[in-house]
Amino acid sequence: MEPDGDLLLRLRSGDEQAFVTLVGRYHEPMLRLAVSFVPSRAVAEEVVQDTWLAVLRGLDGFQGRSSLRTWVFRILVNQARTTGTREHRSVPVADPEPAVDPSRFDASGSWADPPERWIDTAEGRIEAGKLAYRIRARIDELPARQRQVVILRDIEEMSSEEVCAVLAISEANQRVLLHRGRSRLRQLFEDEFREVR
Amino acid sequence: MRLLRDRDLVCQQAVELVTDYLEGRLSRSARRRFERHLADCPHCTEYLAQMRATISLTGRLAPEDLTPQMRDEFVELYRRWKSGQQ
Question: What does pTM read for this prediction?
Fold first, then answer.
């Protein structure tokens, strides 16, 4: 894959194909992220469209102090937050949320209902190529702020620093949201893929 | 080192440390305590493996390609922007 830096040079020289390549690379994750901020998919599509226009307008002024990707995603998050947030509906970071349902432990804190095995089933199905949409559906079930961090960290594979910059959150909050998001997702995968007994 | 036994983790605490463990954010002593718990606990070992599998399954989602129609729309967007510039 062509590095974003090379793409930036071509974009600045007015290369239409470079723009289409950039859009192809980030449009879908941007749409997923936008959906977590605004009330509907239609609004999210507008936000992403507006982001691409803002990217084109901002290209000449882009200083390269962050990566092209960080810059593009930050514009998106700013546009989405301005458009109307539904983040306040999700659980505040300060509220406790256990990684595993407390009823699965006994009084001493040991597993009473231990994790059911599912990894082999899921791996088998991903090889068959039938799994992607189910994984996406489970990710879409995460609360908005957890979903944002999971999309950026685990799908886009950004570093924690990059995620903090894009979402304008502290490293500690980023880690809490990541922990909750991954923990919930593990439970959803367990429910979905556990071997039939 | 039996004296340390009362500071041992229980499973319910261990599952809350998994992300900090994978992120390399546990202190040396906390990491040792966590790993000592895993060595004795097949369920938490399975749990950690499932958290790793969760991350890896999520990471294998490739972005969906633009449809030809979307491609055309973005070429159009680009050309409109370009002509507005001059």
Answer: 0.89
